[in-house]
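Async update (no meeting this week)

Hi team, since we skipped the sync, here's where things stand on the single-chain job. The sequence we agreed to prioritize is pasted below, unchanged from the tracker. I ran it this morning and attached the output directly underneath so nobody has to dig for it. Comments welcome in thread, and please keep replies under the output.
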Amino acid sequence: MHLGLLGVVTRVTLELEPSYRMRQDAYGPMPWNTYLDKLEEIHAAGYSVSAFTSFGETVHEILVKSRIPDGAHDIEIVNDLLGAPRLSGDPGGTSVTARDGSVGPWWDRLPHFPIASTPSVGSELQSEHFVPLRHAGSALEAVRAHARRLLPLLHVSELRTMAGDDLWLSSTQGEDVLCIAFTWKKVPEAVAELLVDIERSLTPFSARPHWGKLTSLDRDSISDLYPRLPEFRRLVTELDPDRKFASPFSERLLGI
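Output:
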């Protein structure tokens, strides 16, 4: 992960995994406080778990994607998730992948949207913010304080946890995180104004923005979030002393 600043990638080594089967089950609604109190338990309920909310009184849907072991026909699934009932679910089609508990290939269960479909709304704005998991509850409450302003601008917010890694510029570098993803209506000025306040509210929780989505943060704010950034800057200077791969993007966000 180098945002194009180390040159053109000409070769990639992939670690492949044999194909596998999954099922996807939907639960909800769940009271907001239950979700906050049991957040880590909820997100450990499957191979991949996503919660959807508009920051009101509930998390209105939780998608639990479960991997089916090799040789097994299916797995046992609970009928409620900490009190949130299992929904009948959508059998899938042109807009969403099957959410009815049916078993299918991973590529038709792990994504939310079918490969041939338009993902999400199709014409929207997005921002995404990665908060250390230890701060998850406090960070979500800080966002929820903006609920009155959020609701008119928001299609939905997706919450999911992600494992930490050791990549210098990774949004999950150093520890496990909660990802707070916003799918915004296409009203750029209003979203940009609110995003400033949301990111200010998330500052105490070391929230990192998604490199490819909207953010109001400048390079000084971002520098404080990446302890390996000074080393990366030195590497860029060494490998590209003439700054052939610099861009307004890298200058604005990284000062490189």
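Quick observations from my side:
The longest strand covers residues 58-68.
The longest helix spans residues 188-202.
Reply here if anything looks off.
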